[in-house]
Fold:
Amino acid sequence: MRDVKLENGGIVFDSTLKSEKTVEGIDAVLQRIEIALSVDKGDFPYNREMGVYIPNLDLTQERDILNLEMYINEAIYNIYECSCKVLSVNSEKNTVKLIITANGETYEKEVKLGGKL
Structure:
């Protein structure tokens, strides 16, 4: 999978090539997850299909953590052999620690909830 690189709410351009930078592999998956946690579906200006609507969740409750995991997996469902599991929630830092499986590899990442891209 390959995507255009996004940062600070916009597309990142390579000044030497005068074209968009891209992200691939796990970086593209992580970017999709960050979009899902930051943007309601339909509100992302570069692709109206990206993002998901995540209602207010109480992430001290196991049920809501599982719901968050479901919403993240909804955002990456169309990426072949890719899934995500929420390991823990840090409410002080407003982050979640995730285990992401993509193409047979496993990655552990911490992602900000509701942060700006």
